[in-house]
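Subgroup meeting minutes
Present: P.N., E.W., G.H.
Scribe: E.W.

1. P.N. recapped why we're keeping a running log of single-chain structure predictions: easier to compare across weeks, and new members can see raw inputs and outputs side by side.
2. G.H. added today's entry (125 aa).
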Amino acid sequence: MDLLASGLAAIVGILKLCFEAISVLCILLGLIACLQLVIRRPGRLYIPPFIDIRLTLGSWLALGLEFQLGADILGTTIAPSFDTLGQLAAIAVIRTFLNYFLSKEIEQEAKQVSAKPLFTEEPEV
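Output recorded in log:
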């Protein structure tokens, strides 16, 4: 039984590390995507300032948060004490609120982008 428990703990540890690595990768990919948007931005034609960049980064951050939450859940499966479950609950609530409000902001800005003309002569202030 100890062999099974230690094997399961090792598998969960590896999975947790994978989830955390994927989360970091999501944030890195979001940064790269945003940098590409900044570099490709035309000189005289302006899309509403930085909304497209914020939408891109926000989407990648939300995905990264999902993987972080998954990693936290996996971490508590090894030794679920009341202390670790309480920490998971607090972290889950915080990350869920962050993800919820981030999603709402992304949705709102996406509506703004679709409602405004895409190209203007002058940048908005």
